[in-house]
Amino acid sequence: MFTHIMIGSNDLERSKVFYDATFTALGGKLGKRDGRGRLIYEHEGGRLMITEPIDGNPATAANGGTIGIAATSQDKVRAWHEAGTTHGGTSIETPPCERPNGVFVAYLRDPDGNKLTARTKATR
Fold it and tell me: Which CATH superfamily is domain 5-52+65-119 in?
């Protein structure tokens, strides 16, 4: 259904440090820049793009929005969370944990305030 998710950043270098760390913790690759300078991350068939807003206004995080990222194991979720908090992200909600439906999750805000979650598939 979706081709990609695009989010804004006010500091692409800071974002690259954060997202390179979190995606490699999941087994993904470092981000690449396209011809317009946008960061592009591809992982598990999904694509996340990060850009400075084209209208010249500051980037802001979506209120109520969350970007979900698939992880293959609880260890990968923990590694993603650790990489994120070490590289400018903020841990939010609960520490990495299993939910009643068997999904193991962790939540972060990236350096620009975007809400992210890494999660495994449900075990129940």
Answer: 2,3-Dihydroxybiphenyl 1,2-Dioxygenase, domain 1 (3.10.180.10)
Give residue 48's Cα distance to chain centre: 8
Tokens 């990222």 sit on residue: 69
pLDDT in tens, 40-96: 999 888 899 999 998 999 999 887 889 999 999 999 999 999 999 999 999 999 899
43 C-beta neighbours (distance < 10 Å), count: 17
CA 110 vs. chain centroid, Å, equals: 7
Helix (H, G, I), strand (E, B) or coil at 62: coil
The CA distance from 50 to 11, in Å, is 10
Contact yes or no for 112/15 (Cβ under 8 A):
yes
